[in-house]
Specification:
Blueprint (H helix, E strand, L loop, with lengths): L11 E2 L4 E4 L3 E6 L6 H7 L6 E7 L2 E10 L3 E9 L20 E9 H10 L10 E10 L4 E9 L11 H13 L4 H8 L9 H30 L6 H26 L4
Parallel strand pairs: 1-9
Antiparallel strand pairs: 2-3, 3-7, 4-7, 4-8, 5-6, 8-9
Helix pairs in contact: 5-6
């Protein structure tokens, strides 16, 4: 199946679960938290017409999408795969031995695709957060497909780990959609970040105290926009990105040297 097929009007969107769309229904391929129906349908109000497990050669899952240190250090994104045998720059990737990415392709509408883009990092701003990218993939039964997925616009950080919460959602989605057992096992070997020292636990609340006043107004705005079906302005995503970068700058220069790393 091809994302560019005009007759059928369908496209697949790929990601740690992502997708793409055509005239009516579209496909989206998910590799991260959107693999979980609890997140995709429950939180984003997206109800795919079809879900297909796929393999994406040449890519690997990393957690280099920076979140909030000590709380949600890294979110999922995909990057070109490292050579087989490479130790890797993240230490948290699920594909460090050169194995391909596994994810789920979802069949969705264009409106649902726009909703996902609007509620993901960056709010659709191509310069920050996630952007759409076209990738080639193959379903488990051997059907070649082309779809779109969300990837990080720039690799701001490496070596980040997911939180136990986020890692649990990924595992739940992978099991729910029956990804290959060996891939689930590799995903299970990813080490979530857990504060281990008293200093790291203290810094966790310092980071939250710094971050909350910066993003609370835009978070409320975004929730209201989602509730009323309005599109979140790109300026909101841009502001949130710079607020996140500011907190990470404070982490790297002050919190990490004093209390220990939060990633």
């Amino acid at each position: 199946m091809d994302a560019g097929e005009k007759d059928s009007g369908v496209v697949w969107y790929l990601g740690t679960f992502t997708w793409c769309s055509g005239r009516g229904v579209g496909g989206w391929m998910w590799y991260g938290s959107n693999m979980s129906s609890r997140v995709l349908s429950g939180r984003r109000r997206v109800f795919p017409a079809k879900a297909v497990p796929v393999v994406v050669p040449g890519y690997q899952l990393t957690f280099d999408m920076a979140g909030l240190p000590y709380w949600e250090p890294g979110f999922g994104t995909i990057q070109p795969a490292e050579p087989r045998g490479a130790r890797g720059g993240t230490g948290a990737t699920d594909c460090q031995v050169g194995e391909p990415l596994h994810c789920v392709a979802f069949l969705i509408t264009r409106h649902e695709l726009e909703r996902i883009i609007d509620t993901e990092g960056g709010a659709g701003n191509p310069n920050f957060g996630y952007r759409l990218a076209t990738v080639e993939c193959t379903s488990y039964d051997g059907v070649a497909m082309r779809g779109v997925t969300l990837v990080n616009t720039e690799r701001v950080a490496t070596g980040l780990h997911p939180s136990p919460r986020y890692h649990g959602i990924l595992m739940q989605g992978a099991v729910e959609h029956r990804l290959a057992d060996e891939y689930i096992a590799r995903l299970g070997r990813v080490q979530p970040y857990v504060p281990k020292t008293a200093g790291q636990r203290a810094a966790k609340y310092i980071a939250a105290a710094l971050y909350a006043p910066l993003v609370l107004p835009t978070a409320v705005f975004g929730l209201c926009a989602l509730a009323f079906g309005a599109k979140t302005p790109r300026a909101v995503g841009t502001y949130n990105e710079w607020a996140t970068r500011l907190v990470w700058l404070i982490h790297d220069c002050v919190l990490a040297p004093v209390f220990g790393r939060g990633a």
